[in-house]
Design a protein that fits this description.
By secondary structure, the chain is of the alpha+beta class. The chain has 24 helices and 30 strands. 33% of the residues lie in helices and 22% in strands. A hairpin with an 8-residue loop joins β29 and β30 (722-726). α4 crosses α5 (141-157) and α6 packs across α7.
């Protein structure tokens, strides 16, 4: 129940908002002679719950979460009549066994609205739902039960199982746990947005018609009935639900209503001026009002003041919630991840493998899946049959079984355009709205789009930051908010090499700048993505460094590197994971002859080459230090012969060159041997070594053994100006 609609940016109603409001006990008026206490759950899932006769609800403790309480909704009024002011329909998880699931936010809100315009869904302690109905006046329990039972029948018509209806017909003692307005136990509006405290109280004021309550969104005294009515008309019109009857219903919720003789009434009901306007989902109500009233010919009475900017004081006592990782460092809820690589490098294979791992929970190249879920895989450049081949091969290669979660797929046979770009703006397509519904219906947690470029149409400019922001921030990322899911998009790169070989050390290094700028198009794409994973083809010159360690007969064309180019929430690994492409054969059936056949496709595995490249740097540093240690007697003797505390690096290189066994090899160049000796001396006598976090650390015998030798470079930069220097406190 953590899911919220993309537009739900307002702070949810919580206990703090109601701490000083005496109105809450009046809203949830109940039997004050007997309080229901509940303290969580037993190991078997049963509630720890009991009645405490003679006690009233302590609302201060309840709203703070210190003591969870409830009551019987039926009570006796001053006349001794058994009445109530609140009704509740209890809806628990639907289905049985492994198919049992809780309704998501949007399902619950839609069900409530269809059943009764007065029904307000609250989350229950077990992440299910309590549908509250607030009576305007005290109502006899028998009558109240009839009303609630009829609403429950409407819910049942929607194929939803109702667990309990309160109050009972005779007012018998049957308790309900009241909401704490904390975490899951909060109210939602008809759109699926969390209510603020003001929004919830405002809803109760306009409870006869929830569209008015949702649309108006104004505090007492800051708006007008005219504005609310115009906005409600525009809202209804955009949903093809406008009628004069409904406008009259909304008008009757105002106290007092607008007179039908008012000139403004005719502007709405007769002239239909509202047809020129619409309320966008991603706009605030206040902003829409501002736009509307700026038109001079439609100046409205009681125009609202500019609302204050909402800020939150940091106290230092805030409860910090852990980030909701799906794959640590790569995928996180409500975030976009870009997988970027050159055409043909294997992005599609990796995205198919990711889809399989997200539904089965199988490790993804050594990384754990923390939040599996249903996956929607949309491969715009692959046929459904090709998707089937790849997934079958992955299943065979990785093992595991499909279980609770499912992969839903769509191929190039089913074209999908989510946004259309016009000369001045971008519009979400009808298919986008269909996708939103599909995500809710199928409970899609993870969406994979491959490649990114295929899901827009019109005058789209990939290099335009404005277009990219419209496409990514306003169109794609909001999809992740529907079910608190993830969005992973495949994207092409510029043909940049993201790795290099250091000319001095000959070590493999990642080029962070190239990795970050590799994704093609406007920079705002990388800016909008929280994570960017870049794919790097194996280079032949790098392969030549490590090929002797590979014994399976594979070639450099079989390897692809994975680089963490960007992560907003953790340090990127200054490392490259080498993946090896393997061939997998899967069974097939010829549709014409019905004869069995086979097909082959590729899948990736984490290569042993990764471990080799990771250890190579540290191995080389150790070799350099050992070389210097072995030759330390000669170096010390050169200091003694010179009678100084400084000797040239080059003089040491020349002495060691004469002792080097490689000089006897006819194909070895003297210059190459000199360069190798110089590098070993520099690094062995206190050089720099890059660790896997991207940090440089000092290494060498200067820091380990107290020799206090080091090298320095004079300003002229010539080789003869490199020195090995002995400190004043030189000692072995």
């Amino acid at each position: 129940m953590e899911q919220t609609a993309p537009a739900a940016e307002a702070t949810a109603a919580n206990a703090k908002d109601f701490q000083d409001l005496s109105i809450i006990p009046q809203i949830f008026k109940s039997d004050e002679t007997n309080v229901l206490i509940w303290n969580g759950f037993k190991p078997d899932g049963q509630k720890i719950q009991y009645w405490n006769p003679g006690q009233k609800i302590d609302w201060q403790k309840h709203l703070s979460g210190a003591l969870n309480q409830g009551a019987n909704l039926a009570y006796k009024n001053s006349k001794g009549e058994l009445v109530c002011k609140v009704g509740v329909i209890d809806i628990d998880a639907q289905g049985k066994g492994t198919n049992k699931r809780s309704l998501d936010v949007h399902e619950a809100c839609t069900i409530a609205l269809k059943a009764s315009t007065k029904l307000i869904p609250f989350g229950s302690p077990r992440k299910n739902w309590h549908m509250y109905y607030f009576f305007k006046n005290e109502t006899p329990v028998k009558e109240a039960n009839k009303i609630m039972s009829s609403i429950a029948a409407e819910i049942t018509k929607q194929k939803i199982t109702v667990d309990k209806v309160l109050p009972t017909a005779n007012g018998s003692q049957c308790g309900i746990n009241f909401p704490t307005f904390l975490k899951h136990q909060i109210p939602y509006d008809p759109r699926g947005n969390k209510y603020t405290a003001d929004g919830f109280l405002n809803r109760l004021r306009f409870n006869n018609y929830p569209i008015a309550a949702t649309v108006i969104g104004l505090k007492e005294g800051t708006g007008s009935r005219y504005q609310a009515l115009c906005m409600a008309a525009a809202e209804l019109n955009t949903k093809d639900k406008y009628s004069e009857e409904r406008i009259i219903q909304i008008n009757n919720t105002f106290d007092p209503p607008i007179k039908t003789t008012d000139a403004y009434w005719n502007r709405i009901t007769k002239d239909k001026d509202f047809e020129k306007y619409k309320i966008e989902k991603d706009e605030s109500i206040a902003e829409w009002i501002k736009q509307f009233v700026s038109l001079k010919e439609y100046q409205l009475p009681d125009d609202p003041e500019e609302p204050e900017l909402e800020v939150f004081e940091h106290t230092g006592t805030e409860v910090i919630e852990p980030r909701k990782w799906v794959i640590a460092g790569w995928l996180m809820e409500k975030c976009l991840t870009i997988l970027a690589g050159q055409p043909g490098i294997g992005k599609t294979i990796i995205l198919h493998m990711l889809a399989y791992c997200l539904v089965t929970g199988a490790g993804f190249f050594g990384k754990a899946i923390y939040r599996p879920g249903n996956v929607l895989l949309i491969a715009a450049e692959e046929t459904l049959n090709e998707i089937n081949i790849r997934l079958a091969a992955i299943h065979k290669f990785l093992g595991g079984e499909y279980g609770k979660y499912k992969i839903y797929k769509r191929g190039l046979e089913q074209d999908l355009k989510l946004v259309k770009f016009n000369a001045s703006h971008a519009e979400k397509t009808k298919q986008y709205k269909q996708l939103e519904k599909l995500i809710r219906k199928l409970d899609i947690k993870h969406i994979i789009l491959d490649p990114l470029i295929n899901f827009q149409s019109g005058n789209y400019d990939e290099n335009s930051n404005q277009h990219m922001e419209e496409y990514i921030k306003n169109t794609l990322i909001p999809l992740t908010f529907i079910n608190a899911g993830t969005l992973i998009a495949g994207h092409h790169t510029n043909k940049l090499s993201m790795i290099r070989i250091d000319e001095d050390s000959k070590d493999i290094e990642i080029d962070p700048q190239s990795a970050l700028t590799a994704p093609r198009g406007a920079s705002s794409l990388v800016g909008a993505a929280r994570f960017v994973i870049a794919m790097q083809p194996m280079l032949k010159k790098i392969w030549n460094k490590f090929k002797e360690h590979v014994k399976d007969g594979s070639n450099f064309i079989h390897y692809t590197g994975i680089i963490e180019a960007k992560s907003n929430y953790n340090l990127v690994e200054d490392d490259i994971a080498w993946l090896k492409k393997n061939t997998v054969e899967v069974a097939a059936i010829d549709p014409e002859t019905k004869e069995p056949a086979t097909e082959q496709t590729g899948v990736f595995s984490l290569s042993t080459l990764s471990a080799i490249t990771k250890n190579k740097l540290k191995l080389k540093a150790a070799e350099n230090e050992l070389y210097v240690r072995n030759n330390m007697p000669l170096i010390k003797s050169m200091f003694d012969a010179a009678g100084e505390d400084k000797i040239t690096l080059n003089s040491v290189v020349v002495r060691l060159l004469g002792q080097d066994a490689r000089m006897a090899e006819p194909d070895m160049k003297e210059s190459a041997i000199k360069s190798d000796i110089r590098r070993k001396l520099i690094n062995g006598l206190g050089g720099n070594e890059k660790d896997f976090k991207g940090q440089y650390a000092r290494t060498g015998i200067e820091y380990e053994d107290g020799y206090n030798y080091w090298y320095s470079v004079e300003k002229n930069g010539s080789l003869d100006a490199w020195f090995i220097e002995r400190g004043k406190n030189f000692k072995k």
